[in-house]
Amino acid sequence: MYKIVSKKDLASNVKMFKVYAPRVAAKAKPGQFIILRLHEKGERIPLTITDWSKEEGTVTIVVLEAGKTTKELASMKEGDYILNFVGPLGKPAEVKYYGTVAFVGGGVGIALIYPEVRAFKEAGNKIITIIGARTKDLLIFEDELSKLSDELYVATDDDSKGHHGFVSDILKKLLEEGKHIDLVIAVGPVIMMKVISDLTRPYGIKTIVSLNPIMVDGTGMCGSCRVTVGGETKFVCVDGPEFDGHLVDFDNLIARNRRYLEEEKIALERFLSHG
Ligand SMILES: Cc1cc2nc3c(=O)[nH]c(=O)nc-3n(C[C@H](O)[C@H](O)[C@H](O)COP(=O)(O)OP(=O)(O)OC[C@H]3O[C@@H](n4cnc5c(N)ncnc54)[C@H](O)[C@@H]3O)c2cc1C
Ligand code: FES
């Protein structure tokens, strides 16, 4: 059992939890994730390791309330216990010096780029960070990212802060102005990662995306998380979650992520009416 040692509201539908999981904290690296199960009847869901402390033995996760399990997790309190908390899973990010690295974070993806921004900064890179959300209240981790970034740009869909529009508009403008960028790392909704990859392709800028297919076991056994990358089948849980965005078949990923929509809707309705 894994104790929730602290809980914080980052936005109305985004919660941050520190969980006591010393063995995960001891081995965690940027880019990796955990799979948790809340209780005996719970489903397994993957969540990125946003931060960790070897000294405290804690792992920080940031959760966007998407459906039944994430809403159930969001309703848990400090002192509650999570039944299973397995990790670190997946390959760590390849952190090294590239020159100028542009990070693009959308929605909950803003929190998920944080450990990589920190690691790439420590590796001596110049950091450009572009974050975007529907509205300014959902712009999580802005202070933390602004401290680590040489340049920080903000976009909101509703014009409540920064650029009125998408994160991709900002990257497009920077590229059109001739800004030199050696690597782009994009984390957020699949459609955002697809648009960013399409944008950087003609410029020949290497673009890394962190894929979020439906996962079950997280160990390469069930095949649920398979994606097509460069014409080859890859399992995101063991070969990823990070891949070259120019090689990912995003349309296939979008279609596969929709395959349990009906079941997810029923599970959420049942949870909201019965708890
Ligand atoms: C490697 C990885 C890291 C992730 N990191 C984070 C994170 O740090 N924070 C965060 O808020 N979300 C993260 N996600 C997405 C998160 O796992 C889903 O939002 C969550 O599983 C939704 O479950 P639900 O029951 O609340 O919603 P549901 O109603 O079941 O589903 C809502 C949507 O979530 C996705 N989803 C559902 N079940 C799974 C599953 N088992 N695996 C993956 N996606 C699923 C589907 O696209 C679905 O349409 C990550 C996903 C992956 C694969
Ligand atoms: S989640 Fe089962 S193979 Fe990746």
Describe the protein's architecture and organization.
- The chain is α/β, with parallel strands linked by helices.
- The protein has three domains: 2-89, Translation factors (Elongation Factor Tu (Ef-tu), domain 3, Beta Barrel); 101-202, Rossmann fold (3-Layer(aba) Sandwich), CATH 3.40.50; 211-275, no CATH class.
- It has nine helices and 17 strands.
- The strands form four sheets. It has a seven-stranded mixed beta sheet with strand order 12-11-10-9-13-14-17, sandwiched between helices. Strands 5-6-2-1-7 form a five-stranded antiparallel beta sheet. A three-stranded antiparallel beta sheet has the order 4-3-8.
- The chain starts with a strand and ends with a helix.
- The mean pLDDT is 94.
- The chain binds flavin-adenine dinucleotide and FE2/S2 (inorganic) cluster.
- Flavin-adenine dinucleotide binds at residues 33, 45-48, 61-64, 66-70, 108, 112, 212-215, 241, 257, 264, 268.
